[in-house]
Amino acid sequence: MEKIYSKIVRERKEEFQIETSIQQDCKKKYVVKRPLCPAGVTHIRRMEETYIKEKKNNTLLCPCFIEGDSVYFEYVNGITLCQKMLRSVETGNEIELQRLIKEYEILIEKLCCGKEKTNVQFEGEFSEVFGNLGNEEQRRISENSYSDL
Q1: Side-chain-side CA neighbours of residue 6 (13 Å)
Q2: d(C-alpha 13, C-alpha 148), whole Å
Q3: Distances in Å between the alpha carbon of 91 and those of 18, 21, 78, 104, 133?
Q4: Cα(113)–Cα(109) distance, rounded to whole angstroms?
Q5: pTM of the model
Q6: 41: closest CA among 22, 15, 59?
Q7: Would you say 116 and 144 are in contact if contact means Cβ atoms under 8 Å apart?
Q8: How far apart are CA 65 and CA 52, in angstroms?
Q9: How far, in Å, CA of 41 to CA of 105, rounded?
């Protein structure tokens, strides 16, 4: 496979330091995430586990598979939801814009604002990775939180 793009994130704690690349073989493109150090393998494997779990819950996530220490996602060509919304605004299509906003609200509710929201204790390692969170509402998170939508 040929690597055609790469972004490396070293600003996070070691377990979350990854390279995200776009790779292409003669037939397909993939988004590949690989850990920069052995401590990150668990984080990468959780991405596939989350996909398998959420597929059973009918959550629309990009298909992926593990190969070695990397997770491969199908590269998706298309127009983002944001681009669709902007096009609706530019063309004055209020009905389509309202439909897209509702689609977005449903997605956000399903992924991070549903009944599974719970209070979590943020100590030590969490604060090192994500910083300190202020009030109690900010400390309520979903078990289905995805940081890489």
Answers
A1: 8
A2: 16
A3: 39, 35, 19, 19, 40
A4: 5
A5: 0.60
A6: 15
A7: yes
A8: 10
A9: 32
Write down the pLDDT at residue 86.
95
* C-alpha to C-alpha distance for 96 and 102, rounded to whole angstroms: 10
Burial string for 126-141 (b: 16+ CB within 10 Å, else e) reads eeeeeeeeeeeeeeeb
pLDDT tens, residue by residue, 41-92: 999 999 999 888 888 877 777 889 999 999 999 998 888 888 999 999 999 9
For residues 143 and 112, is the Cβ–Cβ distance under 8 A? no
What is the mean pLDDT of the segment spanning 125-148? 55
- State the Cα–Cα distance between residues 6 and 100, nearest whole angstrom: 31
Query: What distance in Å separates the CA atoms of residue 71 and residue 60, rounded to the nearest whole number?
Result: 17
